[in-house]
Amino acid sequence: MKTTILVHCPDQSGIISTVTGFIHKNQGNIVYLDQHVDKNADVFFMRTVIEFDTHFLDLEKFKTLFQEELASKYKMKWSLHTDEKLPNMAIFVSKYNHCLYDLLSRYRSGELAVEIPFILSNHNDLRYIADQFEIPFYHIPFNKEIRVQAELQQLELLQKYNIDFIVLARYMQIVSEKLISKFPNKIINIHHSFLPAFAGAKPYHAAFKRGVKIIGATSHYVTEELDAGPIIEQDVTTVTHSHSIEDFITKGRDLEKIVLSRGVKLHIARKTMVYNNKTVIFS
Asked: What is the pLDDT of residues 139-150, one digit of tens each?
């Protein structure tokens, strides 16, 4: 059984040797370890992947001892994740289909180690894609007048299917504070530029008019401040005066697909840690 432990705490001497010694003492074999120190904040981060001995039986006891012997002493904030069960990922989408198709294709090919219990949309336009991939599709209309009711329906679905995290695959609605509070750093969005440049309904048109030389895409965790959450992944491509607005849109959508899938894979692999609205991304 592979188990991943994520830790962050005030930086101090002896953390790594103490943690590795504890793991060895409790029948664990470390197969990966990476760490980072934020010198400005004086905070230590560590990601450790363990394989336990075949005779190891009591994970709950391991967690209790870790808290008592290590976490309390070093003032750690930590989490432990096993690979016994695939996480449940819900996809929210509106009318654009490129990110949805990309995620579902990667899922079907085995590239994304998740289960997708359902796809949710505020429109019916993309139901046919869910049908192609044989995934349940829920249409929940969303506007100011029915916002509260729609949010309750969303939360009921998320609870019913025991969802672990949400991916906004170009879901063109503002996510509520209530939903964010239920899934802190567990809602991944894709933004069509380097945040917060060229916000609004037609970002590529704005970029074209400005005569930019690069366009980019950013995947990030959703926070209450619109498009300002911790960044997971970014990428860019070059453009020139010879490119049309249609070229900008095509190139941008390619970037959106790539950057969103990278962000999702990093989250699934427990390679992201959020601190002070920033992320530490382990290799």
From this structure: 999 887 888 898
Burial of 81 (0-12, 13-18, 19+ CB in 10 A): middle
Which residues carry out catalysis?
A: 227
Give the whole-angstrom CA distance, residue 87 versus residue 115.
Answer: 6
Average pLDDT over residues 19-23: 93
Say how far apart CA 33 and CA 147 lie, in whole Å. Answer: 45
Query: Could you write out the three-class secondary structure of 39-102?
Result: CCCCEEEEEEEEEECCCCCCHHHHHHHHHHHHHHHHCCEEEEEECCCCCEEEEEECCCCHHHHH
Which tokens belong to 225? Answer: 């401040």
pLDDT grade for 108, boundaries at 50, 70 and 90 = very high
Question: Omega of the bond prior to 10 within 30 degrees of 0, cis?
Answer: no
- Please give the pLDDT value at position 144: 79
What value does the CA radius of gyration of the chain take, rounded to a whole number of Å?
A: 21
Length of the chain counted residue by residue: 283
